[in-house]
Amino acid sequence: MTVVAPQTVRAQTGVSFNSYEAFKDSLVALTQITDALERDAQLTEFFTDLQTQGQIPYTYGESVAFLYRGPGSTIQFAGDFNGWNPRDGNSILMAPSDVWIREESFPGDARLDYKIVRNANDWILDPDNPLKQRGGFGDNSELRMPMYIPSPWVDRQPGIPAGTYSSNFSIISSNLGYTVRYRVYTPAAYDSDQLSNLPVIYVTDGHEYAADPTGSMLIVLDNLIEAERIPPVVAVFIDPRVGGNNLRFSQYIENDAFADFVADELVPVIDASYRTDARREARAILGTSLGGLNSAFFGAARTDTFALLGVQSPAFKAGNNMYDLYRNEPVRDVRIHMSWGTIHDVGDAGEKMAEILSDKGYEFETVILNEGHSWGAWRALLDDVLVYFWGLEIVVGTTAIPERRQPSLGQNYPNPAEIETIIPFFIPEIAVVRLRLYDMLGRLVTTLVNEVRTSGNHEVAMQTSNLPSGAYIYRLELDGNFVADRTLVLLR
Questions:
Q1: Domain that holds residue 186
Q2: Whether residue 83 is found in the same domain as residue 22
Q3: Is the model's pLDDT at 72 over the cut of 60?
Q4: Closest to 358 measured CA to CA, from 2, 57, 56
Q5: Cβ-based burial of 17 (10 A; exposed 0-12, middle 13-18, buried ≥19)
Q6: Which of 31, 54, 214, 484 sees the fewest Cβ atoms within 10 Å?
Q7: How far apart are CA 450 and CA 466, in angstroms?
């Protein structure tokens, strides 16, 4: 099993305080000013400074203060971190001021969606936070922790040629008994007949993956192709909406009829209409949540047609026998990219499947993010999925190796940890491996690995019962060269 670390630690910027406690002490002092006019003026200046620095919510290390100023009987914060349950997000009024505060602690590289709930039923965006992420029910405010690094691929780069995104096509499905709509992306230069024999990715929930505010996949494809990180690719975006109803709940849950529709009806139309590589090895299926469950199901039901499976935040528990389809049957010739979040995403569904895949000897890759069940997480990992399927070679020194074969350090699991945690990493060739654990002050706690290891996937089990609760940093070096570090949290 390979676990990819898509983020690296970066220095904090724009912070006016040398600790979270210093920020909190300053805020408390301002809210306790007796003169109401003076208090309001100084709080306005304080909040304006935080806004200018992009520090509402305020973050430092792994500490967070959700903040709101204004009248209300109650102010609550609901989001990925509490399963969108306002009752688990009550804030405190810092009387006599009009400042409300909700304090939390998240991993330093986390990214979360949230909203403010005013007076129990008025759900609003955070008026002081310009960051937004579109969700299934409209825009949410977005919290980015200090070590979070946004994907460089989800925003259109200047001068990048855009592919063509077709209008809706319709196909009457005999397997499903109704008409299905889909749209097709073809890469730039396709219309000039310069491109042929192209791999194809079929995308469920296609209308959301293709939209810029949610999946941003058209932008990601254009950027990756122009940067020569992947070859030109055709993408087929399948729309689950039929007659005003979204049928994803029936289509995506271990549905043989839907799998047969895609494999036996839609694929032949695409291969006949576009200059595709019609081999199963060049054909992928991608989906998230129930769509992730569906992608894994295709790997069991239609391996004859699909060899590449993109499984994001898979809702395996909505199915009946997905684990058994992989645990109890012979290994199929597929390659799987699977990802999930650690914060109210799909629980242990991904870990359970990863263990099965590893035991069976499947070729697969997992990415674990400190995020929730959100398009913000799924869109940011599209480059990982596409590069894993079709990544082109890049030059490292004088050697050209596939990009997906670069060394990587994965997120430990479980995280937070209590008694034991597993740290995964990958090295592309034999090297002296040093894996060390540090506290948040940079002091060495222990050396976990300091030896020569061969190329491949590795996991280190670390006993944590002798360590105090808190946050730590573990760091990977190969032949004395820094590779990556990540944050680990211990709870007692």
A1: 164-404
A2: yes
A3: yes
A4: 2
A5: middle
A6: 54
A7: 21
Q: Which of 422, 400, 392 is CA-nearest to residue 409?
A: 422
Flag whether pLDDT at 9 surpasses 50.
Answer: no
Summarize the confidence of residues 170-180 as an average pLDDT: 97
Residues 284 and 199 in one domain: yes
Say yes or no: 399 and 451 in one domain.
no
**pTM of the predicted model as reported, rounded to 2 decimal places:** 0.78
**418 and 392 within one domain:** no
Q: Quick one: tokens of 299?
A: 């790997």
* Residue 50 DSSP one-character state: H
Q: Specify whether the CB–CB gap between 394 and 400 falls below 8 A.
A: yes
In the structure encoding, which two tokens stand for residue 258, read together? 């839907």
What is the tens place of the pLDDT at every residue in 410-421?
Answer: 888 888 888 889
Please indicate, yes or no, whether residues 335 and 273 belong to a single structural domain of this protein: yes
Token pair, residue 161, equals 């040629």
Residue 446 and residue 383 share a domain: no
Q: Which amino acid is at 16?
A: S
Statement to judge: residues 294 and 395 lie in one domain: yes
Where are the alpha helices (H) located in 212-289, listed in sequence order? Answer: 217-226, 248-251, 256-260, 267-273
Mean pLDDT of 334-359: 94
Please report the pLDDT score of residue 393 as a whole number: 53
465 is a domain residue: yes
CA proximity to 47, closest of 73, 70, 74: 70
- Output helix, strand, coil percentages for the chain, rounded to the nearest 5: 25, 35, 40
Q: What is the mean pLDDT of the chain?
A: 90
Q: Give the count of alpha carbons within 13 A of 374, CB side only.
A: 31
Q: How many domains does the chain have?
A: 3
Cα 16 from Cα 46, distance rounded (Å): 11
Where is the domain boundary, 346, 378, 404? 404
Report pLDDT for 92.
97
Residue 258 pLDDT exceeds 90: yes
What the block records as the tokens of 378 is 């799924």
* Residues 334, 443 within the same domain: no
